[in-house]
């Protein structure tokens, strides 16, 4: 009997906890060929070891990369095509900056805008080109509810995530007539190291990952996770400015 | 600050929750001047995993597998891995946890720190008997690798050491061979306590698993249901049954388990099981974890929460002590639905503070009715004390210090291994720091 080829998945920012839990769901479904693209190989190796134990038939690769260098980004995408194309790309990296410090130090603001906005957009662009040629695949990008409306406590991050919303919207328009799907994921605050400093109710990362994997499966254009954020953000986006500006958020 | 409570829901207080993420960075994460305690899934009933207004090191995301050898059944994993994840990983590959408690939603770290037992104590001992190696991280930054044969003193202090010797980062477990996901179960209703003892004796050698439910309202003629099981052979290879998962979505204003409902529950439970008398096959999830099908069942006890009272008494006093405890419970009236009797065998525990010891263990649940419940506990304590027994710390929220002292005579030896940067509500209550 011929074995059906393994689904090929690339995770950009493979050390992300949300992405790690997505990867666990993918390997628990069937054997996959998964590449974790990361800046720090050491950390990724313990994630890869775990995934290999969860599904010994899966192939798990770790690839180190520079995340802000356009040519390095292009190389990551080209390489994955050389290895036989991809079914799913999940772009997951990101870092929550300290808003107050960004206001005082433009290099920090620059760094935050680059890693949360420009870098994921360039990865999306590089993979989109290949996916159009292949005529298949799903390109999923993790944005954030913070990208839906700028607010004083978090607008550097929010603006970068907003960039991703506009970028995916454009890609969705461009690819509407193809079989390639573009998915924007907007998590609410989730239990991962990124939110270690926040003292508020956080969504369990397992639930968020489940929602993302299901949404990618169905090629949903926008995933809010947990789902309640769709309604909360609808209200936040439509609040009149005079009310919004009086809120301390 | 986040409000946290344990399974008994007796109180909920604010904690500074610090999530541990990366086993390579625990040393840094434990640093600080305030004391803390590790918290797994909070499936302990009392205050062993709580530290009101202090730090909780939540281990739930320390949940990676590190190494698994499918030829030998040796598994190394981080301490926050759930027993449910291990079963799911191992059983399809012919291995299973050698010892498992009545819920699969507990962490490896919690299972070690309480040295938990299952229905096969007489055959396999407790969880700690199957640990080959531990990595313990102390709040001063020391990392201690230990096992039954190297640094065995640290190992013996940490197994059953209720989190006080350091934070367990990872553990190596020897799984046992499992040919199938199914068990051959025999259900035997009984209506005298003597019958329980006879059944337990006669099941000792030929049955790996045994435990009995007991109708704690049936005072004199103690009726109950004895269950015993052996792993099924590889020939039994059916798909798992589809279980409906129920959940209790909110806390009722009053305990739904009370003196009006309990006789009905108990009678229904007895008669349903009486109809199932005899042998049948059961999937491991239904046999080991029947309560896991009802999510949040602990809410049924209402906003005041509930106590679990679990004792073990040596065999020579077991009959008398258990008769006496059941009589007290029946007299109290507002007794326990989940009353369980089980014998512990001879295998000695790996930990100096481990709960299991040869004898008979009785588990009773009680809705929290304030001073009336406390008075009952005093009477039960007196029986346990007189019978040279002890109470299980994983379930305890109120034991008096003298009973702790008499039940755990190696306390002084244990305290030499204590990490001064660690403290829990239970340690302050029972040890004073
Ligand atoms: C429905 C139900 C059935 C049960 N059945 C049984 C049974 O049959 N047999 C039995 O023995 N028990 C049983 N229990 C009790 C349960 O197995 C124990 O309380 C177990 O220890 C809970 O594990 P946890 O991960 O929730 O740990 P927690 O309750 O969060 O913590 C328990 C202890 O472990 C310590 N700890 C946790 N993680 C670490 C770590 N990484 N390093 C150091 N210390 C740590 C904590 O500090 C605390 O002292 C049952 C509980 C429930 C709710
Ligand atoms: N957690 C939340 O509440 C939340 C809410 C909304 C959106 N999101 C988004 O969800 C995605 C995943 O985050 P997470 O919650 O899983 O957090 P996480 O576990 O902290 O993951 C973030 C990942 O981004 C990587 N990263 C950060 N800065 C980088 C840089 N300069 N270069 C390369 N990689 C970098 C990190 O790599 P290293 O591990 O190597 O440092 C890390 O793996 C992010 O895009 C985040 O913005 C999260």
From TrEMBL, chain B:
Transmembrane segments: none annotated. It holds the Pfam family FAD_binding_4. Residues 1-178 form the FAD-binding PCMH-type domain. InterPro entries: FAD-bd_PCMH, FAD-bd_PCMH-like_sf, FAD-bd_PCMH_sub2, FAD_lactone_oxidase-like, Oxid_FAD_bind_N. Keywords: FAD, Flavoprotein. The keyword Flavoprotein applies. PANTHER family: D-ARABINONO-1,4-LACTONE OXIDASE, L-GULONOLACTONE OXIDASE. This is FAD-binding oxidoreductase.
